[in-house]
Amino acid sequence: MWRKSSRSNAGDNTECVEIALDGSAARIRDSKGRAEATVAAPAWGAFLTMVKGEDQFKR
Predict the structure, then answer these.
(1) Which pTM does this prediction carry?
(2) How much is the pLDDT for 14?
(3) Residues 30, 17: contact at Cβ < 8 Å?
(4) 27 close to 17: Cβ distance less than 8 angstroms
(5) What is the per-residue pLDDT for 22?
(6) What is the pLDDT of residue 40?
(7) pLDDT in tens, 4-58
(8) Which of 25, 57, 18 lies closest to 41 in space, CA to CA?
């Protein structure tokens, strides 16, 4: 199941980043192009830890 990023443009919903998680990987896509990338679960977890720790990414 694809979910939209909470940081995506909420106004028109045409420009967003979506993610689908399964137990072993995260699939990421841009809603405009539908091109996908797959990231292994450990790398995705490390990425989230880094982003959540950076003040520039916090609301």
Answers:
(1) 0.62
(2) 65
(3) yes
(4) no
(5) 83
(6) 92
(7) 877 666 656 567 888 888 888 998 888 777 678 899 988 888 888 887 886 665 5
(8) 25
Show the tokens assigned to 29. Answer: 């896509």
Give the amino acid at 41: A
- Other CB atoms within 10 A of residue 16 CB: 19
Contact partners, residue 27, CB within 8 Å, separation at least 6: 19, 20, 21, 36, 37, 38, 39
- Tokens at 41, concatenated: 């679960």
* Count of all residues that appear for the chain in the document: 59
> Token digits for 59?
């609301």
CB contact at 8 A, 38 and 20 = no
